[in-house]
Automatic annotation (TrEMBL):
GO terms for biological process: L-histidine catabolic process to glutamate and formamide; L-histidine catabolic process to glutamate and formate. Signal peptide: none annotated. It is found in: Cytoplasm. It comes from the Bacteria. Residues 72-407 form the Amidohydrolase-related domain. Catalyzes the hydrolytic cleavage of the carbon-nitrogen bond in imidazolone-5-propanoate to yield N-formimidoyl-L-glutamate. It is the third step in the universal histidine degradation pathway. One of its GO terms (molecular function) is iron ion binding. The gene is hutI. Keywords: Cytoplasm, Histidine metabolism, Hydrolase, Iron, Metal-binding, Zinc. Its main location: cytoplasm. N-formimidoyl-L-glutamate binds at Y152, N326, G328. This is Imidazolonepropionase. Fe(3+) binds at H80, H82, H250, D324. Zn(2+) binds at H80, H82, H250, D324.
Amino acid sequence: MHILIKNIKTLLQTEEGSERKSRVYGKEMAHLPGINNAWLLAENGIIKDFGSMKDIPEIRADEVMDATGKLVLPSWCDSHTHLVFAAPREQEFVDRINGLTYAEIAARGGGILNSAGKLNETDESKLYDDSLERLHAVVAQGTGAIEIKSGYGLCLEGELKMLRVIRKMKEQNIIPVKASFLAAHAFPPEYKENHEGYINLIINEMLPRVADEGLADYMDAFCEQGFFSVDETARLLEAGLKYNLKPKIHANQLHRSGGVQVGVKYNAISVDHLESMGEEEIEALRGSNTIPTLLPGAAFFLNMHYQPARLLIDAGLPVALATDYNPGSCPSGNMNFLLSLACTQLRMTPEEAINAQTINGAAAMEMEHEMGTIAIGKKASLIITKPVSSLAYLPYSFGENWVERVIV
Ligand SMILES: N=CN[C@@H](CCC(=O)O)C(=O)O
Ligand SMILES: [Zn+2]
């Protein structure tokens, strides 16, 4: 099957020659390569070739699309989601409007524990059907690769159920899916006073089963005051590494929790959230391989202060952006809205934000060799926009659906 897209106004995020970038750092993020008046040929889901219309060769294709006035870019790589959940939590949203904080709701047994209660009452097939519907919805908005976490089971059966649902979605092959094991999301009520007991349960009973059934790619933990301490996080990450589960963790959402430093110490693929950052955290990230992944959707929805994207970019770091799609702190998996948030609230330029949502997002789930740029041999996973005036129109026109077609 050959698909030819021609007369593309601008083909964005192109990589030519044989060298491939694995991520984009600091100042380089302001640069988004592209070809004006371009064509692209996809063969059986892989980018076969592309170039300028003035040099287009004779091509026979099964489908030819005319993209006059339209932009084509690689699909979004959403490297942090909790897309598998049993029910929304709009009552907590109203409680917050009425004055409670996210942390107060969690301390009362709401929040993550609320989701865990619902998840453990929901059967696997319903969980799968609802999650699949959400997956299709974000794909239609341009997401072409996604990471999904467990963490609403908080017991052996519940965690396995979530991870099996994620695996089933992986097997559907709609888009590439990575799974993170996040039993260390909150302490279940019965372990509130017995942290040691829950950590032992994760390490000695859950992890071996998860690894044995090949259910996860990464090990996650919520390193935060009132959740998992630095020492507890370190033990969990060490245990995960014994089963080849690399860390990808929640860090510094509510406080400067030490999450960034412990993530860097264990060579985490990414440390995610980063609302609360200081010079020490930025210093720890410099010279590490760990990708700082910002989740401004959660800061927006919880009305918290935003992540210091400019400081991180100015420090030369490869910033990624992800949605954090979950029923509590960000009930949206829309990467197009995220693009607008990144520009308006994090003061990222459109080019920086697109780099953060494509190649750097791909790197934050180790998919940079197959996703995140337009390069020969990578997946032809593409967003084709409606006719638009320029690249900056995309984040500018927030809330408007400018996606005309998605190819995954
Ligand atoms: N902060 C920890 N976990 C999720 C929220 C989970 C929830 O509230 O259900 C997050 O990344 O924001
Ligand atoms: Zn999260």
